[in-house]
Amino acid sequence: MSWPLPASAEVPTPGRGEPARTYAGQMHLTSTTVSVGGSQLQALTSDGDPARTFVLVHGLGVASTYFEPLAEALGRAGRLVLLNLPGFGPTPEPDRALRISQFAAMARTAAAELGVRDAVWIGHSMGAQVVVEAAAQEPGLTRRMALLSPVVDVLHRRTRTLVRQFLQSAAHEPPASAAASVRAFLSCGPRWMVETFPAMLDYPIEDRIAVTTAEVLLVAGEHDLMAPRRWLETLAERAGGPARVAVVPGAHQAMHSHADEVAELIVGPFDPEAGVATPDDAESGRGVDGGPRIDGGLPSAWSVLRSPRSVWVAAKDWTVALRDQFLSLRARDDGTPGAPGTCTGPAVVLIPGILENPRYLLPLQQWLTAQGHTVHQVPALGWNLRGLSASVTRGLDALEQLGVTDAVVVAHSKGGLIGKAMLLHPRSQGALTGMVTVATPFSGSQLWNRVQRTFLLRRSPLGLFHPEHPELAALIAEREVNSRIVSLSPAFDQMIPGGSHLDGATNVRLDVKGHFRPVSDPSVWEIIHGHVHRLAENAAAPQTVTQS
User: Fold this and answer.
1) pTM of the model
2) Which distant-in-sequence residues (6+ apart) come within 8 Å of 128 by Cβ?
3) Which residues contact 515 (CB under 8 A, 6 or more apart)?
4) What are phi and psi of 51, to 5 degrees?
5) What backbone torsions phi and psi does residue 110 show, to the nearest 5 degrees?
6) Given CA atoms 452, 453, 459, 463 in this order, what sign does their dihedral have?
7) Which of 214, 298, 334, 518 has CB 3.0 to 4.6 Å from 499, enough for a Cys bridge?
8) AB hydrolase-1 domain: which residues (predicted)?
C-alpha cells in the first residue's frame, strides 16, 4: 500500500460533510470534512466490515498518513477511520489554540456523523490523550482503547525534559520512521505545534483515564523514554476499566516501525491478567492471544529472532518435528482402525499440515482409535503441497469414496485451512459436522512478511500463508462455519506469530509451546478428544426453529 496519491489523481476539496473518494494504493479512502465550532477535522474512512471499526488519532505534529504501516495491518481486520485533527495534515489551522478536550469533542462529533459505533479507539502520543478524553466525555463511546506511547509522564512534565527524551528516543528509530516523522512535521509547520504543545504538556491523562470504563491496552517501544514501562503501569493502575500493558520493540514511533506487532496486540482478545508483555517474553507466550490476526498475543517474528529463549524453544520444537517426520516415514501402519476402545464417538478425519505426510499424525490416530473412534487418513492429499481448492476437491472425493458420515476433522496447521474450506463446501453436508485444529494460521502468517512478498515465494505452496493471498483472503471472509470450529493455539508458535485465533470459533490457549509439539503431546490429545465429542453432541442436538 502506498499512501501518496498518484500524480494523475484528482482529489476534490471536500466540503462540509461532503465525501470525496481518494485512493491509497489498493485501499479506498473516503474523505469527509466535519466542521465543529468554526474548526475543521478531516476523517478518512476505508472500505471494510463496519462491525469491526478502528478509529485512529495521530499525535502532535503529524497526521493520519503517519499511520500507514499500522493502518495497512489493521485494514485487513476491519474498517478504518483515520482522523486529521484541526491544524494537522490537510486541515486548516484554527484561529486559536485548542485544548485536548476540544480535540476530543471534535473527534467524537466526527465519529458520530460517520455512524461509528462500538469501535476500537487508537491514539498515539498526544492522540492517546484525545482518545482518553473522548472516552471520559462520553461513557460508552468505546469498549476498548489502545493507547500507543501515551504522554506525558507525570514525573517529566517539563518542556526541556520532554524534548530531550524525544531526541534520545529518536536515536533508536529506523531511518524510514525518522523520515516519516520529518515529512509529517514539515507538513504541519512549527507554529501550530508550538501553540498546541502546552495543551499536551499539561493534560492530566492519569486523572481522566480514571473516569473511563473501557478496556485499555497500553503499548510503547522498549526504548521510548517518553512512555517508559513504569508510566504505562501507572496508567494501567489508574484506569477505570481493565488494563493491559505491552512493551514492543522500537521507541516512541514503534507503531510505525513495528506496526505488525502493535496490530497483533490491538486486534487480539483482551487479557488483563496476562501480565506485562515485553520483547523478551516470546518464549513464555505472554501477550494478547488471537488476531485476524493478526492475532496479537503470540510473539512477533522480531521477537522470535531476538530472544535467545524463544529461539531455544523453536529449536526444540523443530527437533520434535524432524523426529515425528522420520518416525512417520518408517511407520508401516496402513491407517486402518485398530480395536475400538470404550467410548462411542464420531468418526474422525485427520488432515496434517504442509510438508507432513498422511502418517504424520499416526500417534494421535492410534490414540483416538484406542478411545473407540474410527479414524480416517486422507492419503490423496500427499504432502499437502497443493493449493486450497485442489486440496478441498481431493479431500471431499476421498470422503465420498470412504463413505464417511457425521465425522469431525482433526487437523494441524494448513490442514485446518483445508478443513474449514471443506466445511464450507456443499459436498461436506452429512459427511462433516465440525473441526478441531491445532496451530492453524487462519489469518495467515507474517513470520517472513518481506520474503513472502517475493515473486518466487508468492507462487510457491508457502505463498498461501500470506494474509493477502487470494485464496486465504476469501477463506477469512467466510465466517458461517466458524462456530463449528475449535482452534487450539499453542502458548508459543514460532511459525505463526499472529496466533491461531478465529473469530466466532471456540478458541483455546494451550500450555504447550511450539508449532509441532502439541500434536504429539498426550495432554493435547485429551483436549482434542473432549472437543470432538462436544462438536458431535452439538451437531446431534435438535435445532429449535422460531416462527414469526
Assistant:
1) 0.52
2) 57, 59, 147, 148, 149, 150, 151, 205
3) 317, 321, 413, 439, 490, 493, 494, 495, 496
4) -70, -15
5) -60, -45
6) positive
7) 298
8) 54-264
Long-range contacts of 454-459 (CB under 8 A, 24+ apart): none
Spatial distance between the Cα atoms of 90 and 188, rounded to a whole number of angstroms = 9
At 207-256, the pLDDT tens digits run 999 999 999 999 999 889 999 999 999 999 999 999 999 999 888 989 98
Contacts of 252 (CB under 8 A, 6+ apart): 125, 149, 166, 169, 170, 173, 220, 221, 224, 225, 226, 227
List % helix, strand, coil for the chain (3-state, nearest 5).
40, 15, 40
Question: Is the bond leading into 152 cis (omega within 30 degrees of zero)?
Answer: yes
179 burial via Cβ count (<10 Å: 0-12, 13-18, 19+): exposed
Confidence of residue 483 (pLDDT cuts 50, 70, 90): very high
Q: By the 8 A CB rule, do 472 and 446 touch?
A: no
Q: What is the DSSP letter of 454?
A: S
- How far does the chain reach from its first CA to its final CA, in angstroms? 48
Chain segment 64-121, per-residue pLDDT in tens: 888 988 998 898 888 999 999 999 888 888 888 899 999 999 999 999 998 898 899 9
The residue whose grid cell reads 486559536 is 96
- Best CA proximity match to 366, nearest among 334, 401, 408, 398: 334
